[in-house]
Every structure is written in structure tokens, then in C-alpha cells.
């Protein structure tokens, strides 16, 4: 479904991504893990179209999308739930969802928004309230709901567990599994390496802008280097 071929991203003199190649197949959950500054968020932004690679190609559903704008990528079925949620706190919960549905036919928008309120009862009860009143967990559900109303084929999540309590993190990852069971492919960037590997089918480890390791989650979990550096286990 998604094929990234040797992309490079630069911010002036900073070489953030160096010849990165990854893939996400149909009905697959893939995780990208690594320390802060490894290039994880830059990778998702390049795929979403908010950062332009200096080199390399991005294919989505067998079509090269390098030249597509970020809104066009959303319309094609590629959505990003950004780090920090980035919801509009001066707008209501419903208005935030309507923004996510901008790429859909007007006749479908009402049903799409109602489907989110049916799934997230807490959001439904705050439908007409400003998003600023939501808890951190509710804001993350709103960010995911905003992505869902775009009817994604592949959803990317950037550090979704950041700032959430352990109970909410568990609920979040159960939701990710539900979305996958409904046919949505998932690409997730997550610092909680253990939980990411427990949820995904395959994974990549980024280090200083390059892919250090890749493989099935069982292969990665058995890797001594990964265990020492990212799982906090001494071998």
C-alpha cells in the first residue's frame, strides 16, 4: 500500500532523513521506533506532504505521490494524527470533526461525524463545547476521530500515547487494533517501544536519520541491540 524509496529530508544544513526506505502493506500495522531526534516525525511529515523530501520517492496505492499536496494525499486515503494532537481548541468538538471531513462529499459528512460520536460517547456529550475543555485522552480521541472522518486507507499516528495515563494508553492501543480490524492500515511512531512492538506486525528502528534495524516484531524483540537501547533490558 505504502512504499517509501530512499527518501532524504533536509532542514537547511541538517540532514534529518538519509535514504530511508520502508513499506506498509494492506491490513498491516507497522511501527517506527527510535530515540528523540531519530527522524521519526520527519518521516511521517514527508509521507503526509507537509515536508518535501530532497530526494527519493513515495508511492501510495501504487501511485507516485511526490507532487501531491497534503490535502490531496488526505483525499486519496492517507491521514496523519500528529504529535501533540494539534486540535483547534477555540473551535467546538463538532467543528474539529467537520474540518477533518472537508475532503468528503457533503452528503456523507453528517453520517461520518455521527459515526465518531457513536464510537466516542465522551465526545458526543461535549459535542458543542470548545475542544479546550477536553482532557488529554479526549483530545487524542478527537484527533483520531478527525482523521477517521476522512475515511483513511492508511492512518499514521505520531506519538499517540504521549502525555496519557497508563490506563488511557491501554485504551488507545485497543482502539488502534479495532481500526486495523476494520481494514485500516496503520503506521505508528511511538516511544513506548514495548507496546508498539506488542501491537504491530513489523517494525523499523531509526537512528540519526537512518534505518538501523527492521523486521518482524518477533525478530526485533529478540535483537540484543534493540533490547539494550530501546527496551531497557540488559543482555
Please describe what this structure looks like:
With 235 residues, the chain is an alpha/beta fold. The chain has a domain of 159 residues: Rossmann fold, CATH 3.40.50.300. Helices cover 38% and strands 26% of the residues. The chain has ten helices and ten strands. The strands form two sheets. Strands 6-7-8-3-9-10 form a six-stranded mixed sheet, with helices on both faces. A hairpin with a 2-residue loop joins strand 9 and strand 10. Helix 3 runs parallel beside helix 6. It is globular. It starts with a strand and ends in a 6-residue tail after the last helix.
CATH class of the domain at 2-82 and 152-229: Alpha Beta
Task: Name the helicity range.
Answer: 25-40%
Largest sheet: spatial strand order:
6-7-8-3-9-10
Largest sheet: 6 strands, mixed
Shape: globular
CATH homologous superfamily descriptor of the domain at 2-82 and 152-229: P-loop containing nucleotide triphosphate hydrolases
SSE order, one letter for each helix or strand: EEEHEEHEHHHHEHEHEEHH
Number of helices: 10
CATH topology group of the domain at 2-82 and 152-229: Rossmann fold
Query: Strand-residue fraction?
Result: 25-35%
List keywords for this structure.
235 residues; alpha/beta; Rossmann fold; six-stranded mixed sheet; 10 strands
How is the secondary structure organized here?
Elements: E1 2-11, E2 14-24, E3 29-33, H1 40-48, E4 55-60, E5 63-64, H2 70-76, E6 78-81, H3 93-100, H4 106-119, H5 121-125, H6 136-148, E7 154-158, H7 166-181, E8 185-189, H8 193-199, E9 202-207, E10 210-216, H9 217-221, H10 224-229
Amino acid at each position: 500500500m505504502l512504499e517509501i524509496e530512499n527518501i532524504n529530508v533536509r532542514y537547511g544544513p541538517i540532514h534529518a532523513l538519509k535514504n530511508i526506505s520502508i513499506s506498509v502493506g494492506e491490513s498491516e500495522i507497522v511501527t517506527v521506533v527510535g530515540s528523540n531526534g531519530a527522524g521519526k516525525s520527519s518521516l511521517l511529515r514527508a509521507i503526509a506532504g507537509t515536508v518535501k523530501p530532497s530526494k527519493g520517492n513515495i508511492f501510495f496505492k501504487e501511485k507516485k505521490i511526490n507532487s501531491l499536496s497534503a490535502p490531496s494525499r488526505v483525499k486519496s486515503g492517507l491521514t496523519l494524527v500528529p504529535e501533540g494532537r494539534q486540535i483547534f481548541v477555540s473551535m467546538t468538538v463538532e467543528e474539529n470533526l467537520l474540518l477533518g471531513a472537508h475532503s468528503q462529499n457533503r452528503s456523507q459528512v453528517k453520517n461520518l461525524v455521527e459515526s465518531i460520536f457513536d464510537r466516542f460517547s465522551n465526545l458526543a456529550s461535549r459535542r458543542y463545547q470548545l475542544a479546550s475543555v477536553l482532557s488529554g485522552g479526549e483530545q487524542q480521541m478527537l484527533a483520531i476521530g478527525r482523521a477517521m472522518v476522512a475515511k483513511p486507507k492508511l492512518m499514521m499516528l505520531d506519538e499517540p500515547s504521549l502525555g496519557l495515563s497508563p490506563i488511557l494508553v491501554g485504551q488507545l492501543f485497543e482502539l488502534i487494533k479495532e481500526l486495523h480490524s476494520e481494514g485500516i492500515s496503520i503506521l505508528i511512531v511511538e516511544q513506548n517501544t514495548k507496546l508498539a512492538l506488542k501491537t504491530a506486525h513489523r517494525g523499523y528502528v531509526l537512528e540519526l536519520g537512518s534505518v538501523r534495524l527492521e523486521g518482524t516484531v518477533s525478530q526485533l524483540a529478540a535483537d540484543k541491540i534493540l533490547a539494550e537501547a530501546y527496551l531497557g533490558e540488559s543482555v
